[in-house]
Amino acid sequence: MPSILPLGNPAPDDGRFPTEVGRRIRSAAETGSPRTFSLYVHVPFCDVRCGYCDFNTYTAEDLGPGASRGSYADTVIGELDFAAGALRGSGVPDRTLETVFFGGGTPTLLPAADLVRILGRAREVFGITAGAEVTTEANPDSVTAASLRDLAAGGFTRVSFGMQSAVPHVLATLERTHRPENVPAAVAWAREAGLEVSLDLIYGTPGESLEDWRQTVEAALALRPDHLSAYSLIVEDGTKFGAQVKRGTVADVDPDDQADKYLLAERLFAAAGYRWYEISNWALDPQDEGIHRARHNMAYWRDQDWWGAGPGAHSHLAGVRFWNAKHPAAYAQRLATGVSPSVGREEPDAEARFLERIMLGVRLSDGLPVSALEAAPDGGAQARRQIAALIGEGLLDGRAALAGRVVPTLQGRLLDDAIVRRLAGF
Q: How many domains does one find in the chain?
């Protein structure tokens, strides 16, 4: 969750939504395509802020009054209660949660009992669908066998570990605090607790060789996780890495190097039975049954609805986007005075929604329906011409296009931004 909030209109203090929101949700359900509802809980605490991180996170030294870890669970529970009242007061139909995701920061810096208590309150105020996916992110050094057992007993079904690399010098450059040997132990504890396991990896760190990356991928595969995410390192302005790159003390990322590492990861993942379903995500799925995909993230990519709780958290309801106060102290203060934690709101226009639909759709192995391009001002004529050209260039799958879907090839995944620009007419 990026730390910079977007521009938008002020959100009302009572948190109420336009009547259009409820109408759209009811209409979608009546037409047989109900909008799903999810919950994201942002836990902004970290022991150390990594040099590459642009997320809304804080160490103990960054926090002011009213923003302690000890009181955080109660503050988030206050937002859940506020959210339920604002939704019902706006005529938004009740919906149970399909997925819940605790992200950060490092959610598991909070006691497992606090995370379970937040989840329990979400179950009380919204309801959680049977078989729902409930995930927490975790650093490998922030869990124990006991804490993972407590999470599983409290309703969590999945844990996503920030492994990042198996190579000590790469972890040091990233300023990650865990040792590589912590990862197998944490995965084993999660398995023993009955939790599904995902591993997050980062490639393209300055100083990381192709063999370093191979070592990381092979170490991750040896643990046989249910799910893998592999993200290219992005140097963001305002981060420690960004400043170091500008000063020339750290080399900038090399897109060609990152492309080579992506291709290596795809080859090794595929050989081990992992199928890509989103450009940066693979699920263990030897029989191509769609299992082990991150259902929560799929809700984002499929433009479904979610409430984001916590400082700086973003939410989406039937086309309306809104976001909370950024700093934990400001966020807590608003809730303490009975005011909505949301400080901004927007409803993107048709052009922005069209662009977003393309951006999200072409990231997925399921692809974007060709029919979605008809929302373009020219009815999709230009985009259809681009599809033919992109197939000829080897960037789109021709068979998928004949079946009515826009799906990138492996080469197309490396040039996703170019595909989006051309289909959108930029």
A: 2
